[in-house]
Design goal:
The complex is a heterodimer. Chain A contains 19 helices and 7 strands. By secondary structure, chain A is of the alpha/beta class. Chain A folds into 3 domains: about 90 residues, Orthogonal Bundle (Fumarate Reductase Iron-sulfur Protein, Chain B, domain 2); about 150 residues, Glutathione S-transferase Yfyf (Class Pi), Chain A, domain 2 (Up-down Bundle), CATH 1.20.1050; about 120 residues, Up-down Bundle (Glutathione S-transferase Yfyf (Class Pi), Chain A, domain 2), CATH 1.20.1050. In chain A, the strands form 2 sheets. Chain A has a 4-stranded parallel β-sheet, with helices on both faces. In chain A, β6, α18 and β7 form a beta-alpha-beta unit. Chain A is globular, with a radius of gyration of 20 Å. By secondary structure, chain B is α/β, with parallel strands linked by helices. Chain B has 4 helices and 4 strands; from the N terminus they run βαβαβαβα. In chain B, β3, α3 and β4 form a beta-alpha-beta unit. The longest helix of chain B has 18 residues. The chains are: A alpha/beta, B alpha/beta. Chains A and B meet through α8 and α9 of A and α2 and α3 of B.
């Protein structure tokens, strides 16, 4: 694929340089050298090298805020994703966060000969069944566990909470013992080769499992399987749902009741769940139906929600931290005790920012961050 | 038919294990030539990424070796390395690699004999295990 194809596909040629993207972009607000408008201009003027060898190409969060505002309907995040493929072909990959461990893990997992031991954390407390027609997607959580130990983030808490919620609804989900990384990060950093390998493996595993529905606790995995797998020709033949949608459906259909949990919370819309897939109401419905939960919205919410600051563990820098500080300050300003999110990566990034206390002059606001699944699990209780 | 020759990457600390490997050489102690030594200033600077990258590049085994706890040039390097290593071990285990493929050793400057012995032992184990499952595209040029 060359630059011209990308311009045609993402309708970049419609751009009339109004600059709304740059004015709304959370990165551009802090990083003066990053401008979506200027990146598009480079592409339209045919400056391929300036675009591809620009390290800022990997700073875009692909959070889709710009696309919400674009009067010409330019698909900027998709333009970035495709331009990154050219960049990867030229040996450019941005600056990996966590020394590139997570990218390396995805590449290692793409190897066809491995036999993972990814479900060793599973205890008898959770009921799972191989006969079930509902599959629960575990995702990267077991791998996040050792990597993010130092920021006191236990990704498996989310997985375990989700299983507890499903169990309490009388569902014994199936888990795949050889599920691999969904390939989200590989795809969004332009490593399509790794993505294809992973997607092929996962799609085959899912089809062989013969399930009717897959439930996700991670919006990135959800988005990737829902939109990118079919786009790249990997059929799944089943329905996909985020755990918040699944619980919201149960509330509506079966009149599911929760026990009282007193807490004032605010909700962070993860970009993958919100702007990418348009799911804003399901998590709010779930929060609203737990008695005692008071939901206060932040200044920017729903379509306008500010991203957590890093995407695909690439180009995490001072500006990313500034975005996080801004978001955490907004959460704090609502007076809520807890910031609820649906995405394990939002939680990673917020927790990471809070561990780094910031300068004395501009301390990072401290607030408890929790996944929606964990909150629901405490409200279903046993 | 050629026998399988495992490739081992050893990250060795400049002050102890690298010197031990040097001593093994100057003392003419024989050990298999399957190991490639990467000298680092301290075992605590070995990031999990280095090890994952080694496996990605087709290494059959990796050793992270440094000073004993009391010998560290930078006071608490081995302690930090241990913390990193225990996390790394869990990742590597989850990926489905055998535990023998990743080793943590404390080898002091004077222990050339031990260094040679560790390499001999590991080569033997890896020969039994066979090539790493990640060995697909690599075969680096020699």
């Amino acid at each position: 694929m060359n630059l011209d194809d990308i311009i045609q596909e993402t309708k970049t040629y419609y751009c009339f340089e109004c600059g709304k993207c740059t004015s709304i972009c959370p990165v551009a607000r802090y990083d003066p050298s990053f401008s979506p408008r200027a990146l598009i201009e480079d592409a339209l003027l045919g400056f391929e090298d300036e675009l591809v060898f620009n390290q800022k190409l990997f700073s875009c969060l692909t959070c889709y805020t710009c696309q919400q505002r674009c009067p010409c309907d330019v698909d900027f995040p998709m333009f970035i994703r495709k331009a990154r493929v050219i960049a990867q072909d030229n040996g450019q990959h941005g600056t990996y966060a966590h020394a590139g461990q997570l990218q390396s893990l995805a590449r290692l997992m793409a190897s066809p000969h491995i036999k993972q031991r990814r479900l060793e954390w599973l205890s008898d407390k959770y009921r799972i069944s191989d006969e079930s027609d509902i599959l629960f997607w575990v995702g990267c959580a077991p791998y996040f566990e050792p990597i993010f130990e130092d920021i006191e983030f236990r990704a498996l808490d989310i997985t375990e909470a989700s299983l507890r919620v499903l169990n309490s609804l009388g569902i014994e989900p199936k888990l795949l013992s050889d599920e691999k990384c969904c390939g989200h990060d590989a795809l969004w950093t332009g490593d399509v080769e790794t993505f294809r390998k992973l997607a092929e493996h996962n799609a085959t595993q899912i089809r062989e499992a013969g399930v009717k529905k897959i439930v996700f606790s991670c919006p990135e995995g959800y988005r990737t399987l829902k939109q990118d797998y079919p786009n790249y020709g990997f059929r799944l033949d089943c329905e996909l749902q985020h755990i918040s949608e699944f619980v919201a459906e149960r509330i509506e259909k079966d009149g599911l009741k929760f026990k009282e949990t007193r807490r004032k919370v605010t909700y962070q819309d993860p970009c993958r769940l919100g702007r990418h897939l348009g799911i804003y109401d399901a998590p709010r419905k779930v929060l609203g139906s737990i008695p005692g939960i008071e939901l206060v919205e932040m200044e920017h919410s729903r379509e306008d929600a500010i991203c957590c600051g890093t995407s695909a563990f690439t180009n995490c820098d001072t500006y990313s931290n500034m975005i996080r500080a801004e978001r955490l300050a907004e959460a704090k300003a609502t007076g809520a005790e807890t910031l609820i999110t649906c995405c394990p990566k939002c939680q990673t990034h917020f927790r990471c920012a809070m561990v780094d206390k910031g300068e004395a002059k501009r301390p990072i606001p401290q607030i408890e961050v929790m996944d929606l699944a964990s909150l629901v699990a405490s409200a279903v209780g046993d | 038919m050629d026998e399988f020759e495992p490739q081992i990457i050893a990250f060795t600390c400049n002050w102890c294990t690298y010197a031990a490997a040097d001593l093994a050489g100057t003392s003419r102690i024989h050990y298999p030539a399957n190991v490639r030594i990467v000298r680092v200033m301290c075992s605590s600077m070995v990031s999990p990424m280095y090890v994952l990258k080694a496996f990605e590049g087709g290494a059959d085994g990796v050793i992270v070796a440094g000073c004993n706890y009391a010998d560290c040039h930078y006071i608490d390097g081995p302690v930090k390395c241990d913390a990193m290593f225990s996390r790394l071990k869990r990742i590597v285990h989850m990926l489905g690699l055998e535990d023998e493929r990743l080793r943590r050793e404390l080898i002091s400057t004077s222990e050339g004999v031990i260094f040679a012995q560790v390499i001999r032992e590991m080569v033997e184990q890896l020969k039994k295990l066979g090539p790493s499952p990640f060995k697909t595209k690599m075969e680096a040029p020699v």
